[in-house]
Amino acid sequence: MKFIFGIALCSITVNSFAQTKFPYQNPALTIEKRVADLLGRMTVEEKAGQLNQLNGGAFTGPAVNNVGQNEKIKMVQSGAVGSLLNVVGVADTRAIQTEAVKSRLHIPLIFGYDVIHGYKTIFPIPLAEACSWDLEAIEKNSSIAAKEASAAGVHWTFAPMCDVSNDPRWGRVMEGAGEDPYYAGLVSAARVKGFQGNLNDNKHVLACVKHFAAYGLVEAGREYNQVDVSRVMLWNKYLPPYKAAVNAGAATVMNAFSVVDGVPASANKYLVTDVLKNKWGFKGFVVSDWASFGEEINHGYAEDEKDAALKSLQAGSMMDMESKISQKYLPELLKEKKITTQQLDEAAGKILYQKFRLGLFDDPFKFCNEANEKAVMFTAENRAIAKTAAEKSIVLLKNNNNILPLDKNKKVALIGFYANSKPDLFDFWIGQGNSNDAVTVYEGLKSKISNISFCNGYNGDNSSSETLINEAIQNATAADVVVVNIGISGKMAGEDRSLAYPQISDGQIALLKALQKTGKPVVALVSSARPLILTLAEPLVDALVQGWILGTEHGNAVASMLVGDYNPSAKTVMTFPYAIGQIPIYYNHFNTGRPTTTDGLGNWYSRYRDIPNEPLYPFGYGLSYTSYDYSEVKLSSSTITKSATLKVTINVKNTGLMDGEETVQLYIRDYAASVIRPVKELKAFKKIMIKAGETKEVSFSLTKDDLSFYDADGNSIIESGKFSVFVGPNSRDTKKADFILN
Ligand code: GLC
Question: What is the rounded distance in angstroms from the CA atom of residue 325 to the CA atom of residue 329?
Answer without folding.
Answer: 6
